[in-house]
Amino acid sequence: MLLERGRALVIDMMAPVLELAAQPIASVKDGIATVDGWFNLYAENQALHEENERLRAWAATARRLAIENATYRSLLHVRDEPAVRFVTTRVIAEGGGPFVRTVVVDAGASAGVAAGHIGMTGTGVVGRVIAAGDQSARLLLLTDLNSRVPVALEGGQARGVLEGDNSALPRLSYLAAGTKVHPGDRIVTSGLGGMFPPGLPIGSIETVTNGVVRVRPWVRFDKLDFIKIVEYSLEPDAIPDPAPPAGPPLPSVNAQAEPAKPAAAPPAR
Question: Which NCBIfam families has this protein been placed in (predicted)?
Answer without folding.
Answer: mreC
